[in-house]
Specification:
Blueprint lengths: L2 H10 L6 H15 E7 L2 E8 L2 H15 L4 E6 L7 E6 L2 H10 L3 E3 L5 E3 L11 H15 E3 L7 E5 L3 H13 L5 E5 L2 E7 L1 H11 L2 H18 L1 H5 L3 H24 L7 H12 L5 H7 L6 H21 L1 H11 L1
Antiparallel strand pairs: 1-2, 2-4, 3-4, 5-6, 7-8, 8-10, 9-10
Helix pairs in contact: 2-3, 2-5, 7-8, 10-13, 11-13, 12-13
């Protein structure tokens, strides 16, 4: 199974969440995996088509839990695509209207008449949890990422302009500026850089994928820096690497629990530099900052990061239990 599929499976297994989050995730999945058919006489039909059976089950449960809609599920075999099978979820006319009204794609006037909204559908996402749910649904519906052992690339293939605008706005609010280009006639939005992708995974709730990616990244960087480390004095090198490991562990904890984008700019910069240059000294890290910062300034910022990580650990059950056992 690919790294991208593993991350998606982790997200699919997450609890459905609150009512507002379910609607946000459904909004993204409807825009990425759904289609709308006009059947005449004011009738409409919404259909979801996905290749992942587990994702089809999640969509089914989202609809039933939030809107009491029971979709019909069937499978389609594709003879031209190597025999791959798609899962198709179909909603009846009344259920389709219920869904589209809930997602602000249709509206009911004072006389009870139902019509499509003239403006682009904008499901309200005023809460951070709802924005995370929408990003999760968009990734499940039209996203993918490369294996971090080979390269760092995270993308959405999004043909709908309003969807691209929504994604760009949500990512910008999360401190993740996104890039866009056209590839083979398809509109692609993407993130580059290991830390941006790790932040994205953490934002969606794929914490296990974040840890696996961080382990891969650190292993790669340690291998790349092995030759440099071998030229250092053994004692100083070991002490420096141990300190760097503690700093990296603290930064990873902050990234998973809060996201590095929540840190002040100065702390964000030194945190990303430490993750990208695991074997550099504090003095060398300071020279990479813009503008450069002396060793004492870097050390001060590292201590602040360690203090933040310490505060986080104090709130986590696994750490409080270990501390209680140590006291006993």
């Amino acid at each position: 199974m690919s790294f991208s599929s593993t991350a998606k499976d982790e997200l699919i297994r997450l609890p459905l969440g609150k009512s507002c989050c379910i609607l946000s995730e459904l909004s993204a999945l409807t825009q990425t995996s759904g289609s709308l058919a006009l059947r005449g006489l004011g009738r409409v039909q919404v259909t979801y088509r996905v290749e992942n059976t587990a994702l089809a089950r999640r969509i089914f449960m989202l609809l039933r839990t939030q809107l009491n809609i029971t979709a019909k599920l069937h499978f389609v075999q594709h003879s031209r695509l190597g025999g791959r099978r798609s899962c198709v979820l179909t909603l009846g006319d009344q259920d389709s209207q219920t869904l589209l009204i809930a997602l602000h794609m249709m509206e009911r006037d004072e006389e009870g008449h139902i019509s499509f909204k003239r403006t682009a559908p904008r499901h309200p996402m005023t809460r951070q949890c709802c924005r995370r749910a929408f990003l999760r649904g968009a990734f499940l519906g039209c996203g993918s990422m490369t294996n971090p052992e080979k390269s760092y690339h995270f993308e959405w293939v999004a043909e709908d302009q309003s969807l691209r605008q929504t994604l760009a706005k949500l990512l910008d609010k999360s401190g993740l500026p996104v890039h866009e280009h056209v590839r083979k006639g398809q509109n692609v939005m993407y993130l580059k850089g290991a830390q941006q992708i790790a932040d994205m995974l953490a934002l969606m709730g794929a914490n296990q994928a974040v840890l696996e990616m961080e382990n891969i990244r650190i292993t790669k960087q340690m291998r790349a820096g092995a030759n440099r480390a071998s030229n250092c004095d053994e004692h100083n090198s070991e002490r420096m690497l141990n300190a760097a490991d503690e700093q990296i562990e603290a930064i990873k904890l902050i990234s998973i629990q809060r996201g590095l984008f929540t840190l002040p700019p100065g702390l964000q910069e030194i945190a990303r530099l430490r993750l990208e240059h695991t074997s550099l000294s504090l003095n060398d890290l300071g020279q990479l900052m813009d503008p450069p910062v002396g060793k004492s300034g870097v050390n001060h910022r590292m201590r602040r990061l360690m203090d933040i990580a310490k505060e986080i650990r104090a709130t986590l059950p696994i750490y409080t239990e270990e501390r209680r056992n140590a006291d006993d």
